[in-house]
Specification:
Order of helices and strands: EEEEEEEEEEE
Number of helices: 0
Shape: globular
Largest sheet: 7 strands, mixed
Oligomer: single chain
Strand content: over 45%
Distance between the termini: 39 Å
Structural class: mainly beta
Length: 129
């Protein structure tokens, strides 16, 4: 089955850290750019990070830059999102997408979409004391 699955979410305290994983099965994740998105009920989905098919190119939203780091692990067929210095407004459902990037950062809009895309089901991240 061709799919990506997110893991690593949960509850963190303000200032804390979490690492999300986007694990692919049935295809090689390295063949795709991968984006991380988040969404709060009632709000638009927001792209927070993207990693190009060919590293080291990475993009971050203004809210993520300096706090979040996106990386690949080809051996694990996965992409990670390391989130540090978490804030309550980081609370959201986080999704990864193979073949899709769409974010605003540094005054620019970066978007890339492959014909074939794989979206995960999402995972909840809650930042609260």
């Amino acid at each position: 089955q061709l799919q990506v699955v997110e893991s690593g979410g949960g509850l963190a305290q303000p200032g804390g850290s979490l690492r999300l994983a986007c694990s692919a099965s049935g295809f090689t994740l390295r063949d795709y750019p991968v984006g991380w998105f988040r969404q709060v009920p009632g709000k638009r989905r927001e792209g927070v990070a993207c990693i190009a098919r060919n590293e080291p190119t990475k993009w971050y939203s203004d809210s993520a830059k300096g706090r979040f780091t996106i990386s690949r692990d080809d051996a694990a067929n996965a992409v990670y999102l390391e989130m540090n210095d978490l804030r309550p407004d980081d609370t959201a459902n986080y999704f990864c997408a193979a073949g899709r990037c769409d974010l605003y950062g540094g005054g620019f809009h970066y978007e890339q979409q492959y014909h074939t895309r794989f979206w995960g089901q999402g995972i909840q991240v809650t930042v609260s004391s």
